[in-house]
Design goal:
The chain has 336 residues and is α/β, with parallel strands linked by helices. It is built from 9 helices and 15 strands.
């Protein structure tokens, strides 16, 4: 078990005064945070310029495919929704009302490692933050020799799904299956496909490792969890009931979502990243998971930054959070 703590300045002290907060933004409590599903829209006086900036610098993957092309989409029901994009946390682009999930490929460029990562953006299960927590991350991995695929998944929305709580996980499993099916083409070695998730996307990444599929091709070999969610506090249960299940959890579902109790020797190795001043998903979401993995002899590396807040993506040099991408690619390369 490896833990590092870096020093730096908090980059969100000023920004928080510029944003309009929507959804379930948490505040610090004795058991962590109120809710780990924050979604933030940029203030209207910044929206026009930020939107223009992002549209003019759109990142394009080498290839984008529909997850369920030629197949019936699981849990889909008739709806009139049309996918759209909007500006969210920090002025980054997000997607909503996704009914046709996709996977965008970024093959490793130089010195390929033979390993691959499925990138799962966050967004509180309210949106999918596909730019900085998706395409930007995949590009950074590919540039460091790790192939990546960006998952734009369907949200747990009962307007388009008959089983909203299983819809994101079903998309993630299908994406892992596709990446393994194309392993030879993409230069991916057998047994070296992992998941990388941010915030709610890290929660989903954790589920792929703990709610194991009967099809091994749908399970990750390792996980990277960035300001993730692993605990079933009262506040996190409220978030799941409001944003994922749209109803109270049953006793069986409470047990199934008590993720720390599901960790065992078969749980994938994990790389954890968190800022200790995160007031949306408390850093103990990572430390408790690290302790549980260690108890079961599962490999784990964790990096805690004193400042950085929530949603720092690839990070900033001024607070040191920009170190984690180099650290994680070295860790991925070292994995057996």
């Amino acid at each position: 078990m490896t833990i590092s703590i870096s020093r730096g300045n908090n980059r969100f002290l000023v920004e928080k005064n510029l944003f309009v907060h929507l959804g379930y933004l948490g505040h610090g409590t004795s058991d962590g945070v109120r809710l780990c599903g924050a979604f933030v829209l940029v203030g209207r006086f910044l929206m026009a310029s930020l939107l223009s900036s992002f549209l003019s610098s759109e990142v394009v993957a080498q290839e984008e495919i529909e997850l369920w092309a030629g197949q019936e989409i699981p849990f889909a029901k008739e709806n009139g929704l049309k996918e759209f994009e909007l500006v969210c946390w920090g002025g980054n682009m997000c997607a909503d009302d996704i009914t046709v999930p996709t996977l965008s490929f970024y093959p490793a460029k130089e010195n390929p490692s033979g390993k691959a990562v499925l990138v799962i953006p966050g967004g509180g299960y309210n949106v999918v933050a596909f730019s900085y927590e998706g395409h930007d991350t995949a590009k950074a991995l590919a540039e460091r020799g790790v192939s990546a695929g960006v998952l734009k998944y369907r949200l747990p929305d009962n307007r388009h799904s008959t089983n909203p709580q299983m819809t994101p996980l079903t998309d993630a499993r299908r994406a892992l299956e596709i990446m393994r099916d194309r392993a030879a083409e993409l230069g991916i070695r057998d047994g070296h496909v992992g998941v990388l998730g941010y915030s709610a996307g890290a929660h989903l990444a954790t589920l792929t490792g703990l709610w194991r599929s009967d099809d091994s091709n749908q399970n990750p070999n390792f996980s990277v969890l960035v300001y993730g969610v692993t605990r079933l506090t009262k506040s996190n249960q409220d978030w799941l009931e409001k944003s994922v299940y749209h109803r109270p959890l049953t006793e069986n579902e409470i047990a199934k979502n008590t993720l720390l109790d599901l960790v065992n020797e078969e749980t994938p190795p994990a790389f954890l990243v968190h800022a200790m001043d995160d007031n949306v998903c408390h850093y103990t979401e990572s430390t408790y998971y690290a302790e549980r993995l260690t108890e079961h002899g599962v490999e784990i590396e964790m990096h805690l930054f004193p400042t950085g807040g929530h949603g720092f993506g690839l990070g900033l040099a001024e607070d040191g959070t920009d170190q984690w991408m180099d650290l994680v690619t070295h860790w991925v390369r070292r994995l057996n």
